[in-house]
């Protein structure tokens, strides 16, 4: 059976600024990575040096057959000190936008992907009286370089940010699956919702921009007798953030695996096939996430798959995972779900928030020379994109 995707579908790959640029020295995470006895096992350092090598990365996206690239603007670079906007950094990111246009690529720009300026965190972060207004000011400073951009993600995975905040407050450590984390810090969640709405107000002044945010979809599935508990887990950790998007221009879906909830909470799927992150190999997560999101936000809000992929050292496994994920996505589209594009995570093997071990990339990067090597999975995926079908 052939799975065919709509005309004009966006086929892309995604990155995050801190994970690929390198030497993001004014960010809060850089400070954490380089602190004495850091909780991070590895540092980002030069990362993939994409700050300087972005033209090569865009060439790869185009040459393998994709038509879209998602990348982030790093707030800590744009505003390295309170109230100081770097014109040079804004010009750098504008060159990236124009580089996409020159190659026939649709840019999907993310304004906040987990990291903030070190000074912002030192001042108390999101829940201070000035947190939301500071973010609004940053978004306003970025507006001039977004001319012609159609897709803008305000905040990446706000539910993960709020859950991580709760975890750090408690001094706890959990498995690297969102469903195993404590409920969100609601004060942080509320501040992020307000920041998102403030950003959308600013972005609305640009004629072409569609704005939304991306949510980490956890595919909560109920074991026998845990239906009510599963609904509560979904409501607090995911659904309240999806519901915010009901009036947005689009919603970003980000899905990797599932979380099975039993009467006592998350269950370890014993004997399950695992990825390098320890997550269950479950490509059907994407279809489940897209259908659940569509039910929450309603039929008038388009969906953009802003992240989906697998951490594996076996590139054939990456093809297997992606083929099955796209097959499920096509089923959802055939059933009427309005999906506008699929952006694979990630373009590059990059810094995965404390570790270089999980390799999600369609392209490998030599840690010494930064040489990019296109994997067979990238060629396969590019072929799917060119054909518009599986």
Automatic annotation (TrEMBL):
Gene3D superfamilies associated with the record: Glycosidases (3.20.20.80)
GO cellular component: cytosol
Keyword Hydrolase listed: yes
GO biological process, one term: carbohydrate catabolic process
Classification via SUPFAM superfamilies: (Trans)glycosidases
Any one Gene Ontology molecular-function term assigned to this protein's record: beta-glucosidase activity
Keywords, sorted A to Z: Glycosidase, Hydrolase
InterPro entries: GH, Glyco_hydro_1
Residues spanning the signal sequence: none
Protein family according to the UniProt entry: Belongs to the glycosyl hydrolase 1 family.
Protein name: Beta-glucosidase
Taxonomic lineage from the root: Bacteria, Bacillati, Actinomycetota, Actinomycetes, Pseudonocardiales
